[in-house]
Amino acid sequence: MKNANWSNYDKDSLDFIYKESTKMLEETFKSFRESSNKSYIALAVYSGMISYCFKEIVQRNISLSSLPYIITAAGSVAAIILLWSNLMPKKMTLAGTEPSKLIHPFFEQESIKDNQLKEMIITKIIDHDKAISENITQVVTRSKRFRQSVVTFLILLFLSLTLTLI
């Protein structure tokens, strides 16, 4: 993006690039929200499983027959620990610009006064490019954590089911 030759683009082309980058930025927000929603649903499932397992462990007086429930509860706790970062607020780069970034001495220079709007659009496109990259990194990281959480939970759940059958 830094090596782009902006003089090769007219205002209409820049408007098109800006609109498309805005759409992509909005998609990163949707993905982030979906990731958060899945994480909260998983938290509810894991918490419910911990409650159920705790009830079973107490009813069985922490005997050998409660081992599968202890393993399942441990798996749920481990899954919550892996998922915890997804439940905390994260900074996403938002669409829009602070006025101080656009009302700036750079845009008041005589040499660009004729192309002031074009320069502002270019600035926004560059900002969008950076924001999209940062947001995608956040979404990918959150998705990996969610996946690790589910896999950990399922492995320990299947282990406890196997012990139950033995």
Structure description:
With 166 residues, the chain is mostly helical. It is 75% helix and 0% strand. It has 4 helices and no strands. Helix 1 packs antiparallel against helix 2 and helix 1 packs parallel to helix 4. The chain is rod-shaped. The mean pLDDT is 88.
Question: Whole-number radius of gyration?
Answer: 25 Å
Tally of distinct domains: 1
Name the poorly predicted regions.
none
Quaternary: single chain
What fraction of residues sit in β-strands? Answer: under 5%
Give the helix proportion (percent range).
Answer: over 70%
Question: Shape, please?
Answer: rod-shaped
Biggest sheet overview? none
Q: Ends: how far apart?
A: 60 Å
Number of strands: 0
The SS-based structural class is mainly alpha
N-to-C SSE series?
HHHH
Average of the residue pLDDT scores: 88
> Number of helical runs?
4
Secondary structure elements and their pairing?
Layout: H1 11-59, H2 67-87, H3 99-102, H4 116-165
List keywords for this structure.
single chain; 166 residues; mainly alpha; rod-shaped
Brief description of this entry?
This protein has 166 residues and is an all-alpha fold.
